[in-house]
## 1
Amino acid sequence: MNAPENIAKIPSTAHAASPLAKQAAATFDQLGLSLTDRLGADLPVFSPIDGSELATLGMDTPGDIDAVVANARTAFAAWKLVPAPHRGELVRRYGALVREHKEALSLLLSIENGKILTEARGEVQEVIDICEYAVGLSRQLFGLTIASERPEHRLTEYWHPMGVLGLISAFNFPAAVWAWGTTVALVCGDSAIWKPSEKTPLTALAFAGLLEKAAADYDLAPANLIQVVVGDARCGTAIADHPDVAIVSATGSVRMGQDVAVRLARRFARPVLELGGNNAAIIAPSADLDLALRGAVFAATGTCGQRCTTLRRLIVHNSIRDAFVQRLIATFATLRIGTPLDDATHVGPLIDRMAFDGMQRALEQARAEGGIVHGGERLDIEGGADGYYVRPAIAEMPGQTAIVREETFAPILYVMGYDTLDEAIALQNGVSQGLSSSIFTSDVREAERFQSAEGSDCGIVNVNIGTSGAEIGGAFGGEKVTGGGRVSGSDSWKNYMRRATATVNYSASLPLAQGVKFDLDIDP
Ligand code: NAD
């Protein structure tokens, strides 16, 4: 079925399909995917670019989760027996499909999420990169051989597939976070269920649709290896509560994570929690200030301030603070704000009105707490109709007040001063979140202290780069209320497998560990 017909069949769309809706539908056509089975009347999906409706989908309900999990269990029983390098072959094929359709997927992602095209392309590239990473990993899922204290004994550690992965994701990285977890879980031998954000289900259906296609063409892949649940938080809850979902990877707000974590703890399921951040950069007097400025502006305004790693707090040495803030204000004024589909744009729209209202409330509170705010107002953008475009804000604060300690998911950069590095590190660590941090300095002592045990308490610690834009090779995640999870990178694959410790005795006697004696008189 061709895509414009899909849109015409959407029951609740009274008006003609918008140009963006047609573009989104055409993308599905280009990918060889059909939305027909997913159309319905429950969930209107809007583009943040102009607020127009892209499609209306039917929604799964919590009552559907039992059947989805049962399918995933059946798929797991077959998939766990496929040798890991052959599981990698599925991911290799999927990566090739994503690479082939990179441009179409980037366009869809940009239309539905609102991030500028270059960042959308970056996110799709991240999916391709993680596929390659996971393929390599499929031949390196190794355990240890450990020295046994007993003679003629071998002590080893094995890693086995864990079970069904339930992955709940946020709107701001609608594809990459899913791919980080799912491709690695697939090579580890798990089956996967994805509940994407209800704000970005089309991107999810496109990325998962290509994976389903790759699986359908691969005779070793069982049916229902990957399933998508289009639903709201209630479906997320049903996944978190389901006794047959072994691992739940949940990315989103701290509030969501606090609810999910308790549910998982109650049934001892494995959590991988990737929650909110409140990331800071310290600008030391010895910093290369041009570099610091570029790094700070990209980290603060990229994805319109809607990255979990967005720079939200700038801690500037008092000797350079006023001059640096003036340069920041001047640079913010040069940012091109507009449609994300124009390659010249730096900053696209916020996801929706709720995000805009949250930003305005935060700015009001910042003023009430003694802050001086520059920017932050809504902008009228040609072709932007009902989109929420804002000028990124800088708020000069008298200290780390209550609003500064909160994560507001919008482009607001709070600036504070410091005199000593101890003071700067105390400010950096003085919030409940612990995701990403950075220091701009040319002083090696400062750089090393910041990374040491007495430095930043975050999961990501950078020197002379901003807080955002992590590479897939390193473990990604943060501490404190950020949840402690590491969804991908480094040895995070262990989150998707279970460990077995095996001892083999190849002697003719039975020595006990720790020298325990238990002599028996046994008739030969
Ligand atoms: P959100 O918490 O509103 O929603 C995230 C997902 O959780 C959605 O799929 C939603 O339906 C689901 N959900 C919400 N409440 C739930 C519940 N009680 N039980 C189960 N599922 C539930 O977050 P959002 O607005 O989509 O995303 C922004 C947030 O995500 C920010 O706080 C950001 O920092 C965070 N985030 C963190 C990372 C990271 O790696 N640490 C990455 C991306 C986004």
Note: Residues 1-14 have pLDDT under 50 and may be disordered.
## 2
Amino acid sequence: MHLPDLKEARKRTSKEVEHIYLEQKYDKNSFKGKKYFIKTYGCQMNVHDSEEIAFRLESLGFTATETLEDADLILLNTCAIRENAHDKLFGFLGRCKHAKDQDKNKIIAICGCMAQEEGVVNEIKSKYKYVDIVFGTHNIHELQDLILKRNNKQEIDVYSCEGNVYENVEYKRDSNIKAWVNIQYGCDKFCTYCIVPYTRGKQRSRSSKEIIKEVECLVKNGYKEVTLLGQNVNAYGKDLEDELSFAELLQSVADTGVERVRFVTSHPWDFTDEMIDVIAKNDNIMNYIHLPLQSGSDRILKLMGRRYTKKEYLELYKKIKEKIKEVAITTDIIVGFPNETDEDFNDTLDVVNTCKYDSAFTFIYSPREGTPAAKMEDSIDLKTKEERLYKLNDLINKYSLENNKKYEGKVVKVLIEGVSEKDNSKAFGYTETMKLVNVSGGIPSIGKIVDVKITEAKSFSLDGEII
Ligand code: 5AD
Ligand code: SF4
């Protein structure tokens, strides 16, 4: 048994990160005829981890099911970023218990960021004895062995460490059109509200050679869009000697000829002019940038440890808008950070009024145990925080619609992803600026990029006709 340890998770040493090339073989007959069900919470990193987990389960012979009750193995891939994730997990565990009561042989496994939290694992250990396996973000590659060696005891194997980089990882990808590609793991920014540096370890980059090899292979297999994934993609390569910068990596990925490339997430702090130039000059790098603001108040930004001021953020925003044509910019904003005043909040609204974002993810601050912000006293009540969130959301939605309206009458390139669930005479896909478009006028080939004339703009999507 290995339990998570917050003190260890916080540590950063100069120890070199190991790049480990996996060579794993398993017997597909081990669980032939058995089914698995995966529930994924949280960010794209988790979604992509679940693609690795699915591959690993299938390497043992499991096949997927969409019905929890039919599954012989239920796996919950959890998120720790906000408190509501905790409630969701324990709520869902109730359903798993019910399923296990019907069939004692079901295996229940928990992984992801919450599995890296001391408090959560202690709770599972003492109160949720029917959970069979708990593993963390650092040992997904051990999943098959954990399943094969399990006995009747609860197995908890979570490591709080800086982490390694694993290569030759295989995935059962959810899509055959769009693919996630990890370029970097972990985070060293330690924003004071954020749990990620503790749950996912030190910031560590994959080698650019391996990344390019993976993208080339995806292109060969017909993938149209690649999203480079990391907590801070623009800090890519800084932890390796003689490695490409993020701007150089982006150029090399664009040079593979993949039809579309994008990346998430970038931190305003490391966003270089070279990056902006590379995005501006390559047609296959999507003109879409997610640029988390978090707050518009210098006082709060400092307390959050964000390393930029409102003025610096706005300067970067202006540069991006000027150099990258028709770029769409989205953001993340937290309201109700401890002791956020009306004046601080108004600074946030002021930035929103200047940047007029295409869309934004907005959150009420949620204290995360072990982070510095969780120790700050907070005089602001929940009602005030909620009112701020509603006000902010109204403003964000107003600008989303305004931005979308600019598309009306225009012809845009849409990567067709599938048939609309609501209306199967329509297809849906995304523009180069990541706008969802519902397309009428016949179903084009799935996976093709087609010209679509936008007929009507809504706050969260566009309607268009194929031309
Ligand atoms: N409370 C609220 N929102 C948070 N985020 C990260 N940590 C917290 C927290 N403790 C938000 C940030 C981040 C996004 C992924 O989640 O806005 O960019
Ligand atoms: Fe969290 Fe800040 Fe790292 Fe983003 S940059 S993962 S918000 S610590």
Note: DSSP finds 13 helices and 21 strands in the chain.
